[in-house]
Amino acid sequence: MTFVVTESCIRCKYTDCVEVCPVDCFYEGPNFLVINPDECIDCALCEPECPVNAIFSEDELPEEQQQFLQINADLAQKWANITVKKAAPIDAEEWKEVQDKLQYLEE
After folding, report:
1. Residue 81 bridge partners (DSSP)
2. Are residues 18 and 81 in contact, defined by beta-carbon separation less than 8 angstroms?
3. Which region holds residue 24: left if phi is over 0, alpha if psi is between -120 and 50, else beta?
4. Beta-carbon neighbour count of residue 6 at 10 Å?
5. Model pTM above 0.90
6. Which residue intervals of 8-62 are DSSP H helices?
7. Residue 71: which residues within 8 A CB-CB, separation 6 or more?
8. Half-sphere exposure at residue 58, Cβ-oriented, CA atoms within 13 angstroms
9. Among 3.30.70.20, 3.40.50.1460, 1.10.287.470, 3.40.50.1220, what is the CATH number of 3-85?
């Protein structure tokens, strides 16, 4: 089983979760983070660290976010690994409560 980064992360990209991951399974894109499902050990340390509640266990992934399981798997193969916390984007707070952000995902 794996954890999945969902739509709430798009354009927020807080990296608090990255620092607590014991296996460095996060990957960073221009405005989103993903978890490599082949590397995640299901430790659950990242989930409570996310300030926008964007991380879910695969078993608890909301129906409307199911596509993010494949998005995480695909983009983890393309993007660079991230292992240290970085500053959030300048406008992250403005995007925190925005819904339906998939259209803004930059690959």
Report:
1. 27
2. no
3. left
4. 25
5. yes
6. 16-20
7. 34, 105
8. 16
9. 3.30.70.20
> Which candidate, 26, 32, 31, places its Cα nearest to that of 3?
26
Q: Which single residue is written with the structure tokens 């980064």?
A: 5
E-assigned strands of 36-76? 55-57
The predicted structure's pLDDT at residue 88: 95
Amino acid found at 57? S
Q: What percent of the chain has pLDDT over 70?
A: 100
- b (16+ CB within 10 A) / e for 53-63: ebbbebeebee
Q: Is the confidence at residue 1, as pLDDT, over 90?
A: no
Handedness of CA 1, 19, 35, 37 (dihedral sign): negative
What strand order describes the sheet that includes 26-28? 33-35, 26-28, 80-81
